[in-house]
Amino acid sequence: xxxRLMQRPxxxxxxxxxxxxxxxxxxxxxxxxxxxxxxxxxxAKFMLATPQYLTADLSKDLxxxxxxxxxMVAAKxxxxxxxxxxxxxxxxxxIAKAAALESPLLVRTIDRTRKDYEDLQRRYxxxxxxxxxxxxxxxxxxxTPDAFLATQHLPFTNNQPSDSSLLVDSDLATQxxxxxxxxxxxxxxxxxxLNPPPPSTQTYYYYQAASGLxxxxxxxxxxxxxxxxxxxxxxxxxxxxxVESASExxxxxxxxxxxxxxxxxxxxxxxxxxxxxxEGVVGQEGLKxxxxxxxxxxxxxxxxxxxxxxxxxxxxxxxxxRVKLMSREECAVSDFMDHPPPTLETEEPSSxxxxxxxxxxxxxxxxxASALHSAPSVSRAQPxxxxxxPEIGDEWDLDAAWHxxxxxxxxxxxxxxxxxxxxxxGGRRR
Length: 430
Hints:
Layout: E1 2-9, E2 16-17, H1 40-43, H2 51-75, H3 78-100, H4 104-135, H5 146-150, H6 163-174, E3 203-209, E4 215-217, H7 219-229, E5 238-240, E6 242-250, H8 253-258, E7 270-277, H9 279-286, H10 291-338, H11 355-358, H12 368-372, H13 398-408
Parallel strand pairs: 4-7
Antiparallel strand pairs: 1-2, 1-3, 1-5, 6-7
């Protein structure tokens, strides 16, 4: 993975890859940059869009809506056509507003920014070519073989300083107060500084994916690079590493305290930290001092992978058991539908009366009112006819029913009255 060195001053939330344009006068840290400047579109959290860019972007959306409208017309979808027409009208209104933003002052500012960017590129190219020419040195005498110098008779030229000059310089160095400075007779008192302290010039350096995605280098890898280069400012502008593992996280207060260089990220944003193999960057010698930490990180990563594998295996086993249980239930339901159990024949209550209901009371299955309205011409029924069905027509009269009721209540405790209420011509008896 290719990663670039990000540079973010503490006084701003603007973080861009370190380059010839950042930091520079072209990109002030307290101003929003234009979108056409290098690396702004991919890495900046805020930027300024020109009216031409806004008009072009809105025109693309308008063209897409035109294509969609033609397809809806072919499908004769009147409702969708109404919504598309409303969206097109809104886009035309926004295009008109973007065109109104193009003032002479804004045009001059954009042209000046573009010109400054071109001048900066030319200066950077000129300085780069000059440094390359300076690095190419002619072959000097110190690079000439000794055998060749032995055959030449060159005059003795000593460019090194003599011992006396070294002594003078040492005397001047060891006697800094040789020439005393005039001192004032006034007694200087330390005054309290009423002005606010100057803003901090601290700058954070970290590596982020060259694509602009929130993928960052692991803190341990940053420590290794710091130990190798002896400073964050000495980091290379771009590195290519081999990714060994990746871990996801979310920006919160704890992460901001541990990784202060990510304090400009919004809270709740998703980030990814990669564990990289830096042997191609710092060499084997640069990793010797961190062998223990790297082995511990590798062991933790393997242990986490094992835990994830076990959890995945348990989840898969539970899913298999659930599928088997559902298949069994489906088979049982299908068998029940194919072979329903035999149904029992039920008798209608109007045709036959159960025996238990016929002998449950003094009047059998009939109520007191029905017995009261029965005909008095029916002879007294024998006890053997109590289980007869209504089709026979042998009913008890009221006296026989009352006699049987008295016989049944004869074994109860005395002093307790039985009140039987009834309606009709029979009146009420106690």
